[in-house]
């Protein structure tokens, strides 16, 4: 027999339902306005499209070709930077976490706490020195900026990987060593497959961060030559600084839709991975 909901459960359900609606409302407004003409958006941004204000896919077509910097070029840079950064974070941080957990030395412990410390340091404290360092080390291009993302994403990734690896049985790795596996082969053939839940969780969280990040590319990259999607949205301006809100809303939708789809398909893995990394060890 199904247990009836208590009064507190009903209140919490109503509260979180209202909270979700408040969160969804801005996204819904972007969707609605992406199908309205610019004049009607300025007149009443909260009104639903009518036969007069509805423009179909015109805003999306305009958004792809608006200005002197094509949207697809920005999308290409965003995809490359996001995929490369997440790959580097998953590979090197999982190896680092395995070393920290299995090699119980003072250096490993200090390095682990340094990774945790990096999670609480505000980006604004280091952004000016970071810009100068990136210029000197030639990390100011889309091909090299993933190295910077690796440094900033390592704190969370090492923390989550370490928590999960602490719960993995050491006997499996010892058996692999007896069978002739070296450290590298043990990691890639034995440990890495068992890290799948946390790999997916860390990958999605870091992907959402890198894809939506505005400040780091803006400070490091030459925005006249290289623009990610968040920077591209800021510069959707015509002559005399005029802004086509319809095209801007369409571009915002094209920017957030891929990451929303990825998150919806992988959210169950995020919950599993975070829970696994939090309760182990």
Any chance you could write out the topology, listing elements then pairs?
Layout: H1 7-33, H2 38-43, H3 58-65, H4 71-102, H5 106-120, H6 127-136, H7 145-165, H8 170-178, H9 183-194, H10 196-212, H11 215-220, H12 229-234, H13 245-279
Q: What is the gist of this entry?
A:
This protein has 13 helices and no strands.
Q: Work out the count of structural domains.
A: 1
Cα distance spanning the termini:
37 Å
Order of helices and strands: HHHHHHHHHHHHH
What is the mean predicted local confidence, pLDDT? Answer: 85
Describe it for me?
There is one protein chain. The model has no long low-confidence stretch (mean pLDDT 85). α4 packs antiparallel against α5 and α5 packs across α7 (145-165). The chain starts with 6 loop residues before the first helix and ends with a helix. It is globular and about 75 Å long. It has 281 residues and is an all-alpha fold. It has a single domain (74-279), classed as MetI-like fold (Orthogonal Bundle). The protein contains 13 helices and no strands.
Question: Tags for this entry?
Answer:
single chain, MetI-like fold
């Amino acid at each position: 027999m199904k247990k009836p909901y208590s009064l507190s459960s009903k209140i919490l359900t109503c509260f979180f339902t209202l909270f979700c609606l408040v969160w969804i409302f801005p996204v819904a407004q972007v969707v609605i306005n992406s199908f309205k003409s610019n004049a009607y958006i300025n007149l009443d941004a909260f009104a639903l499209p009518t036969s007069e204000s509805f423009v179909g896919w015109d805003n999306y077509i305009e958004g792809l070709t608006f200005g002197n910097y094509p949207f697809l070029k920005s999308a290409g840079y965003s995809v490359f930077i996001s995929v490369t950064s997440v790959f580097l974070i998953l590979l090197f941080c999982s190896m680092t976490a395995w070393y920290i957990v299995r090699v119980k030395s003072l250096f490993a412990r200090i390095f682990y706490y340094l990774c945790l410390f990096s999670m609480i340091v505000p980006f604004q404290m280091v952004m000016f020195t970071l810009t100068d360092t990136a210029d000197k080390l030639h990390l100011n291009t889309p091909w090299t900026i993933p190295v910077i993302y690796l440094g900033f994403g390592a704190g969370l990734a090492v923390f989550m990987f370490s928590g999960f690896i602490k719960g993995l049985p050491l006997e499996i790795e010892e058996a692999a060593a007896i069978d002739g596996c070296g450290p590298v082969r043990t990691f890639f053939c034995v440990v890495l497959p068992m890290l799948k839940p946390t790999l997916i969780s860390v990958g999605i969280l870091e992907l959402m961060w890198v894809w939506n990040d505005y400040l780091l590319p803006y400070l490091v990259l030459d925005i006249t030559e290289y623009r990610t999607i968040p920077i591209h949205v800021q510069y959707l301006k015509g002559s005399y600084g005029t802004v086509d809100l319809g095209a801007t809303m369409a571009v915002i939708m094209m920017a957030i839709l891929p990451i929303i789809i990825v998150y919806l398909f992988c959210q169950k893995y995020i919950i599993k991975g975070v829970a696994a990394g939090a309760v182990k060890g």
